Amino acid sequence: MRILVVEDSKVVSRILQHLIAQELGCEVDFAEDFTSAKKLLASHDYFVAITDLNLPDAQEGEIVKQVLAQQIPCIVLTGSLDSKQRQRLLQLGIVDYILKENRFSYEYAVRLVKRLQRNKHVKVLVADDSVVSRKFVRSLLEQHLYQVIEADDGLSALDVLNTQEDIQLLITDYNMPGLDGFGLILKVRERFTREEMAIIGLSSDDDQSLSARFIKNGANDFLKKPFVHEEFHCRVLNTLDSLDMVRRLWEQANLDYLTEVYNRRYFFSRFEPQLSTLNQKQTAFSVGLLDIDFFKKVNDTYGHDIGDEVLIEFAQRLKQFFGQHFVVARFGGEEFVVAFKGLNGSKAFTLLDKFRANLAASPIKTSDGELNITTSIGVASLTGDSLDNLIQRADKALYDAKESGRNLVCIDS
C-alpha cells in the first residue's frame, strides 16, 4: 500500500510521516506543491491521498480534482472551511475533510486510512426499490471503498443473502413492494445475529415512530431521508465499529486464545441446549476426543514456544479437515474435541481415523524443524445421556487408545 501526502507545511508533514509509520507502516510519498504532486501521481499508483486544500501554486483546491480524476480516494486537510467549500468538496466525492487544529486531527486522518483499508473487505447489501436512492447510497459507500451489492426489493435482498457470503451490513429502505424493510429485517434476524450482521434502516416517511420500530425489529440504527453525506458516513462507520467490537468480545468469550478454534465454553453452550431435542428426535450425534501423543515430551525437549506451534498447527489441520461441516474445539492443554452432528459413532470413527493417519504421515513444521506428531482419539455417540456423560465415555475410549499403544482411534462400546 502506497500513500501520497501533499502538504506545504513541513511540521504537518513530519507529524503525518511519524503517525503513518507508527500506525500503518506503508510507503509514503510527500509533495510540497501541486507541481511535484502531479509528477508523483503520474508515476505511482496510490491507495489514498491526504492533501492540503490550498497549496502555494494551487490556491483553489486543484489538487483535490486532480487526485479524484485519477480515481484515488482523497482525504482533505484544511486550515479553514466555510459551508460553501464544504458542500463543494462533498459533492466532488472526497472521503472526508479534516480541519488542521491539533495532533488529534492528524491522528484522525491516519485512522481514516486504516478504515479504508478495512472497508475493502466489507460487503454491504443495499435494498431499495428506488433506483435513484439506491445508486446514491452506493456512490457514498464506494467513496469509502466498501464492496456494494444491490437489491431492488426485500425478496431480492433475501435471494442475495442466500447466495453471497460474508455480508456484514444491510442497508434497507422501509417502503418496498413484496417485502418491506420491517419484514426483511425480521427474516434476516432469523438467520443472522447481531454478531454476524449489522442493519441500518432508511425511510423518507414522516412517521416519528419508524426509528424505534426499526430498532425494535432488529436494526442497529436508522437514518431518515434525505440525509447529508457526513451523517451517512458517520452512521455507517459507527455501526461497523460497534459490529467489530461485539465480534471481538464474542471471540474473546468463545474462541481459544492460542489456536483460534472454539473453546470448551462455546462447545457446551452450543450443544447442551440441543441435546434433549437430539435425544427426542433420535438424531445421530457423536463426539471425538483427541489428545496429542507425548505432548509433554515436546514441551520438555523443544520448549513451550515450539509446543505452542504444534498446538496451533494441529488445530488448523483439524479445522481444515472437519471445520466446514463439524465443530472443532480445544478443551484445554493438548486435548481437542470434534462434534459430529448427524453422524453415528461408526461414521465419526472412519473420519477420525483418516485424520489420524494423515497426521501421522505429515510432519508438523516448526521453527525448530519438522516434528512427527501423532494423536490418540476416543469416540462416543449419543444414547440418551447428558453431554457430560457423552464426553466421559469418549474420554474412556481415549484412555483405551492410549493404553493400546497410542496413535489409535477407539470407539466407546
From TrEMBL:
UniProt keyword annotations, A-Z: Phosphoprotein
Signal peptide: none
Source organism, top-level taxon: Bacteria
Start and end residues of each GGDEF domain: 283-413
E.C. code: 2.7.7.65
Catalytic activity: 2 GTP = 3',3'-c-di-GMP + 2 diphosphate
Residue ranges constituting the Response regulatory domain according to the UniProt record: 2-115, 123-240
InterPro entries: CheY-like_superfamily, Diguanylate_Cyclase, GGDEF_dom, Nucleotide_cyclase, Rev_trsase/Diguanyl_cyclase, Sig_transdc_resp-reg_receiver
4-aspartylphosphate modification, residue list: D52, D173
Identification of the protein by name: diguanylate cyclase
Organism of origin: Shewanella colwelliana (Alteromonas colwelliana)
Organism placement in taxonomy: Bacteria, Pseudomonadati, Pseudomonadota, Gammaproteobacteria, Alteromonadales
